[in-house]
Write a structure and sequence with these properties.
By secondary structure, the chain is an alpha+beta fold. Helix content is about 35%, strand content about 20%. It is built from 3 helices and 5 strands; from the N terminus they run ααβαββββ. The protein is rod-shaped. The model has no long low-confidence stretch (mean pLDDT about 90).
């Protein structure tokens, strides 16, 4: 008679009964194990998304009408982070708008920025 293998759940260490390639006793253990594995990378993504959402909120707050001008100091005082954005849009005239989702900006002159909503410039 063969000796019984000591297969156990990778998460809770309970004895596994069933398929030979089974790694977990239930969906809960599988999900918990995989969430722990991905925790660090998920944390980095959450932090970046938090910064992007804050940038978008600031742009939206300063631009309720869809188009406005603000000074660099206004953005900085609210905690805007110029290092994080979702995309850059270049117009036919070669002007570049930097976007945080649907809210964009571009520097115009004397540290002033033109703020826009994306749908006005992208068809």
């Amino acid at each position: 008679m063969k000796s019984e293998s000591k297969r156990q759940c990778l998460e809770c260490k309970e004895k596994l009964v069933g398929r030979k390639d089974q790694k977990f006793c239930c969906d809960y253990c599988r999900n918990t194990y995989n969430n722990k594995l991905n925790e660090d990378s998920n944390k980095a993504v959450r932090n970046i998304n938090r910064i992007l959402r804050k940038n978008r909120r600031i742009l939206s707050q300063l631009n309720p009408e869809g188009k406005s001008k603000v000074h660099l100091i206004q953005l900085a005082e609210l905690g805007f982070n110029f290092h994080y954005f979702t995309n850059i849009y270049t117009t036919k005239k070669g002007l570049q708008y930097i976007f945080c989702y649907d809210m964009g900006y571009r520097e115009i002159e004397n540290k002033e920025y033109l703020l826009v909503h994306k749908q006005e410039y992208v068809s």
